[in-house]
Design a protein that fits this description.
Helices cover 0% and strands 51% of the residues. By secondary structure, the protein is mainly β. It starts with a strand and ends with a strand. The model has no long low-confidence stretch (mean pLDDT 93).
Length: 180
């Protein structure tokens, strides 16, 4: 039987996530002479699987050679998505019940910094603004107040600027409803 190697289907990951690159073979590992990866893995020399966290979409290929000189090859594309890495809810209820009391956004691992988050009222007045935060820093979550006083329920606009681990700068903006 001919030697076969299978890297599986192409995969989509979000920037900052890890992916398992696994060469499934139909032969005993003791019969393998060499395993060559492209791009070369810094963590895997001659192994049949490794984890990677690519910054850009990458074509992985493997070439397996047996002791008898048989060769099998396969390739797999890992598509890295760098958009929609931040989720900002469209409603929150800062009423002191301990649930949903902050305008708290969540971010994927591929974000290095939150450059700015600002919240505006419908007339364009800045109610809340923070700069140069690490993702997940509670200082970047709005509590629904302005100058220490709760704002009235309504719709507010946010602007969130962030930098990816690749250095690319992105912006997300939208509206959020505050209920009490």
């Amino acid at each position: 039987d001919p030697i076969k190697v299978d890297l599986g289907n192409d995969t989509i990951i979000r920037l900052g996530e890890k992916v398992l690159i696994d060469a499934v073979l139909n032969i005993d590992p003791d019969r393998i002479l060499s395993v060559q990866w492209s791009p070369e893995s810094s963590t895997c020399s001659g192994c049949t699987e490794f984890e990677d966290s690519p910054l850009i979409s990458t074509l992985y290929s493997v070439k397996v050679t047996t002791l008898g000189g048989c060769i099998a090859e396969d390739e797999k594309v890992v598509i890295v998505e760098s958009r929609n890495l931040i989720f900002v809810p469209n409603i929150f209820t800062p009423n002191g019940d301990g649930r949903n009391d902050l305008l708290e956004y969540s971010s994927a691992p591929g974000i290095s910094t939150i450059d700015r988050i600002s919240v505006y009222d419908r007339w364009g007045n800045v109610l809340f603004s923070r700069h140069n935060l690490t993702p997940g820093d509670p200082a970047g979550y709005w509590d629904g107040s302005f100058n220490g006083s709760p704002v009235n329920p309504g719709v507010f606009v946010y602007l969130l600027e962030y930098t990816l681990v690749t250095g690319e700068k992105l912006t997300v903006k939208g509206g959020v409803t505050l209920l009490r």
